[in-house]
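dude i think i finally got it to work??
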Amino acid sequence: MMLELKLRKVGNSVGIVLPKEALAHLNAGEGDTVAVTEGPDGSLRMSPHKAEVTRQMEAVQDVMKRYRHTLRELAK
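look at this
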């Protein structure tokens, strides 16, 4: 699916209005949360927010922070 969307001013921010086809593809609707992540090529990817994935990412970031020196040594 390729969509060209226009950015719109929303208060002091800028937003994107997603058409119903995009919402159906994401299986999302008004009030739902989506996650935007950076792809390896610098692109942005949008996916439905999953609380379990967020919890796992927070745990990984905590481990990386606590063991950064060990991980740096292991990477050599």
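The chain has one domain: 7-74.
im so relieved honestly
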